[in-house]
Amino acid sequence: MKSTNITWHDSTVSKQDRQSMNDHKSPVIWFTGLSGSGKSTVSVALERALHERGIRSYRLDGDNVRHGLNKNLGFSPEDRTENIRRIGEVAKLMNDAGLVTMTAFISPYREDRDQVRELLGKGEFIEVFVKCSLEECEKRDPKGLYQKARSGEIKGFTGIDAPYEEPNSPEVVVETDRQNLDESVETIISYLVKQQLI
C-alpha cells in the first residue's frame, strides 16, 4: 500500500547553504560499466583523492547497498530498475546534504540512468562510463561471476545473457583497460575542476 496524506517539509537550511559552507558543489558522480570494469576500484580511489583535498563526499557501492537498503531485490530487469531508482533517491538526498556522492553500480539500462539524471538538477549528474572490454573484464573476474555465468550457474548476467547499454554521451569516460588507476582518477578530477564543481 502506498503512503497517502504526506507533505514535504522544507528546511530553512538550503542545499546552497550547505555547498557554501563546504566550499564545493555536490554533484552525483555516477559510475557505470560492466562487472569487473573497475567502477568500485576507481570510485574508492576518487573518494580518497577528494578526501585529501578536503572535499566532503560519500560513496555508494552496488554490493554494499544490496547488503542493507536493497537486500530484498534480485537481478530481474524490474529489480534492477528498482535498485537504481532507490539509489537515485538516496543520491538526491546526499546531493541536497551538500556531499559529493559517488555511486558504483552496473546500472545496465540507459533509461534507468536517465531517470536519475532527471531527478537531479542540471549539471548535478556526472555520468562516468568505466569503459573496459568484455574480454578484459572476464580476465579480471574478481568475484568469479563471469565463470559462473558462462557455466550457467548465474542467469541474467550483464554482458553475457543480459544486456548492457553503454551511455550515449557520458560526461566522462575512463578506459580502465588503457589507463592506470591514477590516470582514471585524474581524468575525473580534471573534469570536476573544469566544471567548477570542486
What does this structure look like?
33% of the residues are buried. The protein has a five-stranded parallel β-sheet, with helices on both faces. The protein has 198 residues and is an alpha/beta fold. It starts with 14 loop residues before the first helix and ends with a helix. It has helices at residues 15-22, 39-52, 62-66, 77-96, 110-119, 134-140, 145-150, 181-194; strands spanning 28-32, 57-61, 100-104, 125-131, 172-175. The chain has a single domain, classed as Rossmann fold.
Write a brief structural summary.
The chain has 198 residues and is of the alpha/beta class. The protein is 42% helix and 13% strand.
User: Radius of gyration in whole Å, from Cα?
Assistant: 17 Å
What does the average pLDDT come to?
92
Query: Could you describe the largest sheet, including whether it forms a barrel?
Result: 5 strands, parallel
Superfamily at the CATH H level?
P-loop containing nucleotide triphosphate hydrolases
**What's the overall geometry?**
globular
Separation of the first and last Cα atoms = 42 Å
How many structural units, i.e. domains?
A: 1
Instruction: Give me the secondary-structure category.
Output: alpha/beta
SSE order, one letter for each helix or strand: HEHEHHEHEHHEH
CATH architecture: 3-Layer(aba) Sandwich
CATH topology: Rossmann fold
The CATH C-level class name: Alpha Beta
